[in-house]
Structure formats: C-alpha cells, structure tokens
Design brief:
140 residues, globular, 1 helix
Length: 140
C-alpha cells in the first residue's frame, strides 16, 4: 500500500480568454520530478489495453490532453484504483513500482505521458506475477 498512497490526481494551472486555453505543467513545480522524456499515445481503439507494466525507476504523469481514457493502478498487494482522465488540465501522478493499465480510450484520445527518466527497457516489469513477487520481497 506504501506506493499506492503516492498516486494522486494533479490539477495544472490554466490560463484562457476568448482566444482559447493554455495549460502549464512545469517540472518540479506542477510535476513532482524533472521531466526527462515525453511521449503520447493516440489512435488506440476502445478495447485496447496499454501500459501493463511497472517501473523500478521511472515516475510518470499521465494527462489526456484530448479525449478521455482510464488508468487502473495496482500496488501488487491487492489494492487497486481507477482514475478517469477526461480534462486537459488534470493528470495522474504515478510513482515507481505501481502497475498501470491504460484503457477505455475515446476515439479522439491523446494521452500525454511525462516521465522522470530516459527509456531503459531493463527497469520495466512486464509480468504481473513477477511484480507481485518483487513487491512481497521488498516488504520482507
């Protein structure tokens, strides 16, 4: 449950007038880490599940800048929560060692992901049973 407590929704400052809106996400201010990598996911069908991994080193912030999606997070100890990402000025912060599934993408979904590290395939845990084993070893 220790890392589940760190998962939280974030609300970003937004400015706007008749010309439209502007949302600000600054590293170490609105986002609780230095941003080393940015990527986005789009064109995923509603029945596709993305993510399906945990990370040993990387923290993430997920923001649906267009459309909507859901993120299910699990801590490997039986606790889970679902976050609906449906407003471009809100996101969810995911600490290290949280299992994540992104799903239920709307047709127009663009899911922006901010990451605290450069990509390293070795720090990904892509098997849920292995994730649970690592979590239980960390607790011993």
């Amino acid at each position: 449950m220790h890392n589940m407590n760190k998962v939280k929704m974030l609300e970003f400052p937004q400015l706007g007038d008749e010309r439209g809106h502007l949302v600000i996400a600054e590293a170490m201010k609105d986002v609780p880490f230095e941003i080393k990598r940015v990527f986005y996911i789009y064109g995923s069908d509603a029945d596709v599940v993305r993510g399906q991994h945990a990370n040993k080193e990387t923290e993430f912030v997920l923001i649906n800048v267009a459309g909507k999606s859901k993120v299910k997070v699990k801590d490997g100890e039986g606790n889970e929560a679902i976050y609906c990402l449906n407003r471009p000025h809100t996101g969810v912060y995911l600490p290290t060692m949280i299992w994540k599934d992104m799903y239920d993408f709307s047709d127009d979904s663009v899911l922006l992901v901010l990451a605290s590290t450069h990509y390293n395939p070795d720090e990904y845990i892509r098997n849920y049973d292995e994730f649970v084993k690592v979590i239980s070893e960390d607790m011993d």
